[in-house]
Hints:
This protein is an all-beta fold. It is built from no helices and 5 strands. The chain has one domain. It is elongated and about 40 Å long.
Amino acid sequence: xxxxxxxxxxxxxxxxxxxxxxxxxxxxxxxxxxxxxxxxxxxxxxxxxxxxxxxxxxxxxxxxxxxxxxxxxxxxxxx
Length: 79
């Protein structure tokens, strides 16, 4: 854990928030926040909030998965 834990930045998103992944093409997934945890991100070499997202049944990946995780930087509020 980071030395300042638990005095870290507050999460941007909360339980029940409707979010989508930042699009990197024509399609993206979306759903509701059902959990979150604070963890080290190897790709950015820092600590960050990670969210557990319950996918909307109409989300493209919902055909083969019910929930997924995403780093805070990879998410944005859904319209």
